[in-house]
């Protein structure tokens, strides 16, 4: 009987060690599904049952692609980079069909998709830029009105008729020299002389041909104009 008792103890100890080994091996990272063995104690005996599957506790999902916010109701909102007949002008934001965008606008680099957020941002930036331009224009206007006279020297004949004349570009160049701070604004295409009047109130156009005093009006912005005097003197 003693040998049976000893054998039972050995079997029990050995079985417990195996169970502990399988129990330690049963821990698997939830991110990686694995097949593990399950050990159950059946009436003091450790019995190996069939394999079990440890399912991950955290599901792994692929990230969904972000929706194109420029697409609305089956159409694409785009900003035109070129004039497109029947569609719009440069800078216009319009809705077009995906086919029209892919087959024409995109291929010719005539437009780019734009979201509502981008439209709001660009609108705010444009308004800020316009406000800055308006402030600079008003400052230039005030400076011109304070100017006593813009003097320009030219050679002339005995009768005061100029050799070559004074044109709009010459007056603008002299203004840039007088107001270097506003050189960039005075170089803008929309800045031009609206009129030049002689002492008798006659409009001489944009080409002064005689010595004398003139009243000039400069168009700076849509609603900003400044008047100043131009004195064409004999060159010494």
UniProtKB/TrEMBL annotation:
Keywords: Ribonucleoprotein, Ribosomal protein, RNA-binding, rRNA-binding, Signal. Residues 76-118 form the Ribosomal protein L9 domain. SUPFAM superfamilies: L9 N-domain-like, Ribosomal protein L9 C-domain. Residues 1-19 form the signal peptide. The keyword Secreted does not apply. One of its GO terms (biological process) is translation. This is 50S ribosomal protein L9, chloroplastic. The lineage of its organism: Eukaryota, Sar, Stramenopiles, Ochrophyta, Bacillariophyta.
């Amino acid at each position: 009987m003693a040998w049976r008792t000893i054998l039972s103890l050995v079997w029990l100890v050995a079985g417990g060690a195996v169970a502990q080994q399988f129990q330690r091996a049963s821990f698997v990272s939830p991110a990686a599904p694995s097949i593990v063995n399950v050990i159950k104690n059946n009436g003091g005996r450790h019995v190996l049952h069939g394999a079990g599957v440890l399912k991950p506790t955290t599901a792994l999902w692929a990230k969904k692609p972000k929706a194109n916010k420029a697409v609305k109701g089956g159409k694409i909102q785009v900003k035109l980079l070129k004039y497109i007949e029947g569609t719009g002008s440069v800078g216009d934001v319009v809705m077009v069909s995906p086919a029209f965008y892919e087959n024409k606008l995109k291929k010719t680099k005539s437009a780019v998709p734009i979201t509502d957020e981008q439209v709001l941002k660009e609108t705010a930036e444009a308004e800020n830029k316009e406000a800055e331009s308006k402030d600079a224009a008003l400052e230039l206007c005030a400076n011109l009105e304070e100017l006593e006279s813009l003097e320009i020297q030219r050679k002339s004949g005995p009768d005061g008729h100029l050799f070559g004349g004074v044109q709009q570009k010459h007056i603008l160049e002299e203004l840039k020299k007088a107001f270097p701070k506003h050189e960039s604004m005075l170089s803008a295409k929309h800045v031009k002389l609206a009129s030049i009047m002689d002492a008798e109130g006659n409009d001489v156009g944009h080409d002064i041909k005689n010595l004398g005093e003139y009243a000039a009006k400069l168009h700076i912005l849509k609603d900003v104009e400044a008047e100043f005097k131009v004195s064409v003197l004999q060159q010494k």
